[in-house]
Amino acid sequence: MKSIELKIDVTDAAAMGRPMQTAVTVFLPGVAPGGPPVVCFAFPGGGYCRRYYSFDMPDGSGGGEAGFHCDRGWIFVACDHLGFGDSTIPEGNALDYENIARANDATVKAVMEKLEGGTLSAGYPRVSGAVKLGIGQSMGGCFTLVAQAQFATFDGVGILGYSAIHTVVPSRPGAPAAAWPWVLRGSPLDNPKILNQAALAAAAGPKLGAQKDLAAAASQGEHPFAWCFHYDDEPAEVVARDMGAAAGLESPLPEWRSATTPPCGLYMVAPGTVATEAASITVPVFIGVGERDVVPDPWMEPKAFKSSSDIGVFVCPRMGHMHNFAHTRREFWQRIHSWGAGIAELQAVKSTAPR
Predict the structure, then answer these.
(1) Per-residue pLDDT reduced to its tens digit, 247-263
(2) What pLDDT is attached to residue 249?
(3) I need a surface site. Which of 40, 190, 213, 264 has the fewest CB within 10 A?
(4) 75, 115 contact by CB (below 8 A)
(5) b/e sequence 84-100, b meaning 16+ C-beta within 10 Å
């Protein structure tokens, strides 16, 4: 597996009045694909960066999920959204669903242009007729969903650990549930319109929203995300580093973490925040979650995707919300790979079928 680091100019697409770049890592397989070429674009969740897809757990080697898919012939492209990792980090509340999705769509187009034109890497052959997949974990799932609905970026989308109905971060059993503000999408975050004020006031658990709220809750004991994010049998030292980073206590950050997350992520915990976009997607959809995740009822999720005739659901055992830390992560990756390979094979059949 060979990796190539790129910075993609998305200034025009983002349309924010200043230069903008996204950072991506392209992983090229050392083996030829067994069928039509597949290019999988992967987007991380809030607080994480593109290296979430390529880091190795202590019991693994070979480049994490990126290595897994490359070993099976895929080109894998891990991407930092604007506001994450090594991409441009605008100040304040300048980022929203739309400009992030526009930048992600432009990133995909730019990488595909290099692959199709044979200019990505000296000696690497042109890639033609590729199936483009988009997978996004957590907040990345939301942005992937929005890009697909608004720009038809991909031939199939994998929404991983994100609910198109209502994303809810569960608390440890026996602990009071954390309360989140339901901010009306489009309401300015400098002066947000919060629709569940009474429920927030009555909530017994921690009131969350900004990073300072999470840090304050974590200082009182266990980080409020710990039980949901990491399954019980994961290595304690890795979990401690990840949750320490989430609480702002880990320096330097683990390689899979981002120092920043755009504030527009707060919209994502309101019910129905992307309902119209989800309902409009027509390509195949893969819904992948852990046994312990932020999707309250995975078996209800297909109802959100009313225009797609090809929807799969996979609930991976012994897995928390941060899927790539789980001991069962290879089962999860294999299910994603089988789903993507199926889309490629179906497209090949359609292209040769008599009309």
Answers:
(1) 888 889 999 999 999 99
(2) 85
(3) 190
(4) yes
(5) bbbbbbbeeebbbbebb
